Amino acid sequence: MKTEQFNPFAIAQQQIDQAAEKLELDDSTHELLRWPMRELKATLPVKMDDGSTKLFHAFRIRYNTARGPAKGGIRWHPLETMDTVRALGAWMTWKTAVVDLPLGGGKGGVVCNPKELSETEKERLARAYVRAMAGSIGVTKDVPAPDVYTTPQIMAWMMDEYETIVGENHPGVITGKPLAVGGSKGRQDATARGGVYVTREAAAVANIDLKAAPMAVQGFGNAGMNAALLGEEILGLKLVAASDSKGGVYNPKGISAAALVDYKARNGALKGFPGADEITNEEILGLPVTVLFPAALENVIRGDNAENLKCRICCELANGPTTPDADRILDEKKIIVLPDFLANAGGVTVSYFEQVQNAYNLYWELQEVHWRLDQRMTQAFASVHEMSLRNKINLREAAYLVAIARVAEACKLRGWV
Ligand code: NAD
Questions:
Q1: Are the folds of 37-175 and 190-343 the same?
Q2: Of the CATH numbers 3.30.565.10, 2.60.120.260, 3.40.50.10860, 3.30.1330.10, which one belongs to the domain with range 37-175?
Q3: What is the mean pLDDT of the chain?
Q4: Hey, whose CA ends up nearest to atom 35 of ligand 1?
Q5: Number of C-alpha atoms within 13 angstroms, CB side, residue 397?
Q6: Is any ligand 1 atom within 6 A of the Cβ of residue 295?
Q7: Which of 181, 219, 360, 406 could be joined to 97 by an S-S link, Cβ 3.0–4.6 Å?
Q8: 162 — phi, psi (to 5°)?
Q9: Which residues are within 8 A (CB) of 149 and not within 5 positions of it... i.e. 6 or more apart?
Q10: Of ligand 1's atoms, which has the minimum distance to the CA of residue 264?
């Protein structure tokens, strides 16, 4: 698979430029939205288990806080750069805005290889990150969350360090925590659940019958396997194919999602699932299914393979699975693409619910989380769909317009521009 060769922040700025032109934003608003409002770079000395000290470079971006405190994950990745964090901070700003959360966007990162760190080294790194960022994060400023290679346990250490520094209980400083220390019910499958809700709404407006209709899932991890389970349970879809990094399985008569989850848990991969044929990650994209969930990597649907897609709805649970040239082809083929920052916004929405529950120190039952998530996602789809009809543009362009217009309006009302 090809990976993005360009600077992601340059891409994020181009997307803003295009939306600014369509929205006819004035120059100062446009320029303000092109840049993070605050950036923090820290060098973290961390004691390693062998007694040596290693330096880690760390970042935190508050991209825009016009609509509320910044919200966004902390990634631990060897290739992290300030520009990836800036781009991801911009995308979080549009994501929180498109689902109309009273939050801004932010992101953090540490340049490291977590696979080379012991648990005790990870704990010291997590605590060092919070010591460096403590003045800049907080429930009214910026609320981090887990992301690539950061976990609920790491969030718990970070919360503990922050509370030690401020000398108060402050669970809302960070989300994605384990349930025992202030996490929310329903976080585990929230991303997939949100994607399933918007798929239901898209099918309804396009008159597509989902009952027993075939679905395929590329990437059978957290997002993908929950999409398979919930696609069956909520939409009545029939799973016919799924894949992971080691390859995929296909049975046009149907595969039980629960049996496949169980098989993957026991065998570590999907390959060899009884009664199904093998299929490659490329072939899975071209299956004649009603719903395709790309839930693995970025840039898998490109100009050179988009022509092969035969789905009617492509629900982007992964971040950035479709390149701009592929988008044009999918448009011509009249495939409904539910854009990533709408389709996978269920995760940040339940993170927001976690903050709300922490603030009230009162915790919701699972049904209440599901009901509130459904409301948010349904409303978000309706706003984006309405914008797409009004301007005769696809859902991705419409989602950018909805989100960027909301952030621009908040900047203006505050008198920033
Ligand atoms: P994960 O690590 O749990 O799962 C990823 C899956 O993709 C794994 O099963 C892996 O085997 C598979 N995979 C890797 N390379 C592949 C390849 N070449 N072809 C097919 N499958 C491959 O990750 P996740 O949390 O499910 O995230 C998946 C995507 O969804 C990412 O793009 C992530 O940014 C996005 N996302 C996830 C969440 C969330 O809450 N989990 C929220 C927003 C966005």
A1: yes
A2: 3.40.50.10860
A3: 96
A4: 318
A5: 18
A6: yes
A7: 406
A8: -65, -45
A9: 75, 76, 77, 114
A10: 9
Are the C-beta atoms of residues 86 and 63 closer than 8 Å to each other? yes
Q: For residue 353, give the nearest of 341, 370, 369 by alpha carbon.
A: 369
Q: Is 281 in the pocket of ligand 1 (CB under 6 A)?
A: yes
Kindly report, residue by residue over 308-321, the tens digit of the pLDDT: 999 999 999 998 89
CA distance 77 to 114: 7
| Ligand 1 center from residue 26 Cα (angstroms) | 38
Q: Residue ranges per domain, the chain?
A: 37-175, 190-343
| Run means of pLDDT, 10 residues per run, the chain, 417 residues | 64 93 97 98 98 98 98 96 95 98 98 97 98 97 95 98 97 98 97 98 98 98 97 98 96 98 97 97 97 94 97 96 93 97 98 98 98 98 98 97 98 98
Please report, rounded to a whole number, the percentage of residues in the chain having pLDDT higher than 90.
96
Confirm or reject: Cβ of 221 under 6 Å from ligand 1: yes
CATH (one of 3.40.190.10, 3.30.420.130, 3.40.50.720, 3.20.20.140) for 190-343 = 3.40.50.720
Residue 319 CA: nearest ligand 1 atom is 32
The Cα–Cα gap between 289 and 90 comes to 33
pTM above 0.90, yes or no: yes
